[in-house]
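Suppose a classmate hands you a notebook page containing two proteins, each written out with its sequence and a corresponding row of structure tokens. How would you begin to make sense of it? This section walks through that situation. The first entry is reproduced here exactly as it would appear on such a page.
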Amino acid sequence: MLSRRMFTGCAICAAIGFVADDGSAQTPSGIKRTITARTDGPIEGYETLEVIVDLEPNFVLDWHTHPGTEAGYTLEGDAELRIKGEEPKTMKPGFSWLTASETPHMLKNGSQATKLFVTFTVQKGKPLATSVPAPT
């Protein structure tokens, strides 16, 4: 039986393109993603995706990892980013971050809509993200 946390994590992964191959995939309420570019590389076996992510107020993107790096920039809104082994970070317009491959992280949106620009450089053929339990 799926727990609520696991179901939410799976739904979120699909919404941000973790499972979907194109911008037409359905997304759960609370999040919208738009793939603006998808290219092979920078090395064989990897691809780079550029994605605009829109989060509704108070939306939670549960703990997950990526098979490559995630680099992001906050365009609008505010949120809290948690990365395993680091202090929580407050995301406001102009805030940028980099998450190393396979590093658990999560995001809790604030009381306003938030817009992010995210670049994923990940291994081809692997899910863009995998839900993981909260680190201890």
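The notebook's second entry, a different protein, reads as follows.
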Amino acid sequence: MNARLDRIGLGRFAGSGERLARSVTIASVSFGRSLLWLLAAIIVGCGVWMLLPLSKGNSAEPAKPELASVETTPSGDASAAVTPASEAQAPSAMAELGHLRISSQTWRRGGLGSKALVTFTLRNDNDYAVKDIEIVCAFARRDGSHLTDRTRVLAEPVNMKSRKTFARVSVGFVNVNADQAKCSLVAARRT
């Protein structure tokens, strides 16, 4: 009785070796074709990406904000004069940048190397606190050639006659070739 079961078991699996070899061959050919299609899609996608125009934020030229505000005449006339935003703000609301400076700064990459994280210490020697501090960071290659600028407005106030360290402030995406960064103050408001 045992001999009969062995013969049945062997008979059942006798042709499976050939079927297994055939299915492995078919699977490897199918995998190879899939891999070729994937490679072709990647090459075409990279080619299309390289042909796309640069966006304003990633171009080599610095972005220039073109903000404007509308002022009405004292008579309430419907005709309005358009002036740049820097002239429209009251001088008393703007802080003096002469007494506001960045005393130390460093930067590193974050977000898998695509974002710039800036750490800097802001020193306020004014007789009033400031807030809405706008900084611009210029990024350059190792040889010093300019790549891009990134701006950021910090809402946190800095008290009068004090200093405050801003750690790992994300200023945005940065070019992979960026090696140097220099941040400067653009504007600030009194609190």
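A careful reader of the second entry would note: DSSP finds three helices and eight strands in the chain.
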